[in-house]
Backbone:
């Protein structure tokens, strides 16, 4: 059976590929696995049928032959475990690539997403203007550490892999800011990720959903 | 070679088992794997030698036969992949257990940790008193979703596994609050985790480090 994932019927990111179906689509493209997409509305996401697959009422989910998964990181890892292309054969290198996946989601993403949470929930508060620089200082500190580690390497640990896929995905959330500008190696790293043919195919696929939803296709 | 992990020489949690070496110690105990611990000071954590192992200058790290890993989630998964006890044999059940690990770290922990970040960085700010209830409302919403999913089940997906280990670890960060009280099934779930002999052994091991550091042992 072709795996089926869920994605936003109308993504709040307006087709920028920042929703969490993007890393899953990208992973499918990297390993050459066909997939189907079921689009869900915001209302449907919060209903019991979807919550049975995703307890937190979010996308994406993954279904194949009776297996139901959620969490983009877990789905990308599952895809990477089933087909070659995203994880090295060598067991140690494989463990390190998986460590970078966790790192992207646990050590970098929460720092980055705090800025978005503040915007969505506090931008009308009197303290917002003072809080944003505090949040951005934490983002810069984390980016500085990542930048020093990456140095002039092309990818985080040898060849491109699932860890890079997740890290580039997380860093792309800063695309509409100038926060990456001070770290030219990270900006170039993100650009290398976005230039991959598999990324382009995934991006176009999710962008077509936005165009259709907005009546532009 | 016996794996070596790093842990705080003087944990800021004062031996409550809330530092990130705790889930790794717990995983070792669940699978019956002996391990060594190298304690690091706050100063040493930020030095180049440690950052070569952990780019963000944090604990824990994991070293064994030339393999160096970081990220508690990745280390727990590595331990679980090497020895039976934390992941089911069945491939689908295994993928679901891993999904719960990602869920604990990506969907629950950032919401929970936001409260701690606010305390450490904003408790002297005029807006702190108004922000805390906003943060706690988000924590309650997430706990409510998890509570509805868990229902009256003992663990998240069948037998106790790596997903439960990470989820209980994350929920324990709320131990000093009353936020779990409204969700009696989650409070009982955490208590079941803490009652496991492997948890107790891990807890005692990290607590002895605190006692020694504070001159109480």
Residues:
């Amino acid at each position: 059976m072709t795996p089926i994932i869920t994605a936003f019927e109308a993504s709040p990111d307006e087709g920028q590929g920042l929703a969490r179906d993007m890393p899953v689509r990208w992973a499918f493209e990297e390993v050459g696995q066909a997939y189907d997409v079921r689009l869900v509305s915001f209302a449907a996401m919060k209903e019991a049928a979807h919550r049975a697959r995703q307890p937190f009422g979010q996308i994406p989910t993954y279904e194949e032959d009776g297996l139901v998964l959620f969490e983009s990181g877990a789905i990308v890892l599952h895809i990477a475990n089933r087909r070659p292309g995203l994880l090295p054969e060598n067991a140690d290198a494989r463990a390190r690539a998986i460590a970078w996946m966790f790192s992207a989601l646990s050590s970098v993403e929460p720092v980055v997403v705090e800025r978005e949470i503040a915007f969505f929930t506090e931008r009308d508060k009197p303290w917002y203007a003072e809080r944003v620089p505090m949040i951005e200082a934490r983002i810069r500190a984390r980016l500085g550490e990542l930048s020093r580690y990456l140095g002039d390497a092309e990818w985080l640990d040898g060849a491109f892999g699932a860890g890079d896929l997740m890290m580039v995905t997380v860093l792309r959330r800063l695309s509409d800011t100038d926060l990456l500008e001070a770290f030219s190696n990270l900006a170039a790293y993100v650009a290398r990720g976005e230039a991959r043919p598999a990324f382009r195919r995934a991006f176009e696929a999710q962008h077509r959903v936005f165009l259709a939803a907005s009546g532009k296709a």
Chain B has a mean pLDDT of 96. The longest strand of chain B covers residues 4-8.
